[in-house]
Amino acid sequence: MARITASVYTSHVPAIGAAIDLGKTHEPYWQPLFAGYEFSKQWLREHTPDVVFLVYNDHATAFSLELIPTFAIGTAAEFPIADEGWGPRPVPPVIGHPELASHIAQSVIQEDFDLTIVNKMAVDHGLTVPLSLMCGQPQAWPFKVIPFAVNVVQYPVPSGRRCFQLGQAIRRAIESFDDDLNVQIWGTGGMSHQLQGPRAGLINKAWDNQFLDRLIDDPAALAEVPHIEYVREAGSEGIELVMWLIARGAMADVAGGPKPRVAHRFYHVPASNTAVGHLILENAA
């Protein structure tokens, strides 16, 4: 059967993608950030999955205020790179896994989670920046990707509890798939940042690192944190962190298995007025 072997958590700041695409990764401003992902790139080369289930949020690219699904799963065979106003990023197209994606949709919907099934969708920096951070600049991504878009842009957004429970349903769906697949689940977005208003530029290092601690050690309690705490402590865009709870909910310990191993943890500020967090958790073999 398919199995989840690890979860990866990372910010998806658009300026990171621009720094990669424009060859600025060794500039003094950017070098400390990219140094924090050198271990991760090597780790991924040694632990390359067959499929990555990648949780991210769309930035008014595939969806607009005219249509805002709370949870949307990409079931296509391929996903083109979106033009976000300055041309598509020069990265490979994303190759999907329609069979596993459709199986997950069937299983999760039967567990009473309402998903929007998307058979045609362009993917933006929310998905491509994490791929670039973990994979570098390959000719083709080294695994298939199932995009899973979550609305954290327009309220009402899903609760941390709902996301955590959804992650558990996704794990059950993947483990019920007959093919022998190595699957990783990635949660992206965050950490603390606010892009507008009198608190624009807010970064809360203490809260961010406490979030990482709780994500590792007590995700069930973290899932009960209300939206207002995210907004108050981590800024208006800090709410993106509920997406990390989908990935964490899919880990084995949540279903009574052993606690995951922390393979890597990294935190850096600033990156374009945003705090960058990164974590790799491995399930026991």
TrEMBL record:
Ranges for domain Extradiol ring-cleavage dioxygenase class III enzyme subunit B: 8-276
Gene3D superfamilies named in the record: LigB-like
InterPro entries, per the entry: PCA_45_Dioxygenase_B (IPR034937), Xdiol_dOase_suB (IPR004183)
Oxidoreductase is among the record's keywords: yes
GO molecular function: ferrous iron binding; protocatechuate 4,5-dioxygenase activity
Pfam family, one: LigB
Keyword Oxidoreductase set for record: yes
Family matches, as CDD domains: PCA_45_Dioxygenase_B (cd07364)
Alphabetical UniProt keywords: Dioxygenase, Oxidoreductase
Entries under SUPFAM superfamilies matching the protein: LigB-like
Enzyme Commission number: 1.13.11.8
Top-level lineage group: Bacteria
Enzyme class: oxidoreductase
NCBIfam families: PRK13364.1 (NF009901), PRK13365.1 (NF009902), PRK13366.1 (NF009903)
Protein name per its UniProtKB record: Protocatechuate 4,5-dioxygenase beta chain
Lineage start: Bacteria, Pseudomonadati, Pseudomonadota, Betaproteobacteria, Burkholderiales
